[in-house]
């Protein structure tokens, strides 16, 4: 499978967000000290590592959404 492609059936609500999410994935992996395979094949990565990346991405996206909501709905 080529780099940047995924076998996931999940579809983004905003397809243009794909590049930003990929960038976030690499940033989080770097912060955690996890090397993402250059060929895009994650089969040799530990499940613990891929789960850690996904968990931190989710945490960061929730934080961003909370900040945006707090800014929009200040009383």
From TrEMBL:
GO terms for biological process: DNA topological change. InterPro entries: SASP_alpha/beta-type (IPR001448), SASP_alpha/beta-type_CS (IPR018126), SASP_DNA-binding (IPR050847). PROSITE patterns: SASP_1. It comes from the Bacteria. It holds the Pfam family SASP. GO terms for molecular function: double-stranded DNA binding. SASP are bound to spore DNA. They are double-stranded DNA-binding proteins that cause DNA to change to an a-like conformation. They protect the DNA backbone from chemical and enzymatic cleavage and are thus involved in dormant spore's high resistance to UV light. This is Small, acid-soluble spore protein C. It comes from Paenibacillus solanacearum.
């Amino acid at each position: 499978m080529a780099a940047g492609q995924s076998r996931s059936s999940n579809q983004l609500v905003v397809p243009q967000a794909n590049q930003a999410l990929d960038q976030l994935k690499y940033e989080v992996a770097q912060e955690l000290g996890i090397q993402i395979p250059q060929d895009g094949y994650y089969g040799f990565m530990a499940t613990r590592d891929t789960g850690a990346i996904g968990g931190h991405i989710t945490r960061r996206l929730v934080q961003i959404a909370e900040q945006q909501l707090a800014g929009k709905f200040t009383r």
